[in-house]
Amino acid sequence: MAQGTFDVTRKFVRKMGTLASGLVEFEFAVGDPDTCVELVMPEAAFEEFCRNNQVEFLGAVAASATESATADFKWGMRQATNQRFR
């Protein structure tokens, strides 16, 4: 993020997947899409959440981003749940 461009009126969602139980896993950010929290909620609640917050949807994270030298420090709870770290 460039300095001075943090805009709290912009909200971002990156849908990570849907669990077998029907819960939607997603990342939510305010102002800067690189600083996010991971959330899980039912599909209907997710759709209402996105509508109420007027979110901008982000695409999937590029595979090359996870292969860089700094990838050791870029992980989320979803990755921690599904893989072992060094």
- Element string (H = helix, E = strand): EEEHEH
Query: If you compute it from the alpha carbons, what radius of gyration comes out, rounded to the nearest whole angstrom?
Result: 14 Å
- The helix/strand class is alpha+beta
Structure summary, number of beta strands? 4
Q: Order of strands across the widest beta sheet?
A: 3-2-1-4
Instruction: Count structural domains.
Output: 1
- Between the first and last Cα atoms, what is the distance in angstroms? 29 Å
Can you count the helices? 2
Q: Please estimate the helix content.
A: 10-25%
Basic shape: flat
Task: Explain the overall architecture.
The protein is of the alpha+beta class and 86 residues long. The protein has one domain (11-82). 20% of the residues lie in helices and 29% in strands. It contains two helices and four strands; from the N terminus they run E-E-E-H-E-H. Strands 3-2-1-4 form a four-stranded mixed β-sheet. A hairpin with a 4-residue loop joins strand 1 and strand 2. The termini are far apart. The mean pLDDT is 83.
Compact summary:
The chain has about 90 residues and is an alpha+beta fold. The chain is built from two helices and four strands, in the order E-E-E-H-E-H.
What would the keywords be for this entry?
single chain; 86 residues; alpha+beta; 4-stranded mixed beta sheet; flat
List the helices and strands and how they pair.
Elements: E1 11-18, E2 23-30, E3 36-42, H1 43-53, E4 56-57, H2 77-82
Parallel strand pairs: 1-4
Antiparallel strand pairs: 1-2, 2-3
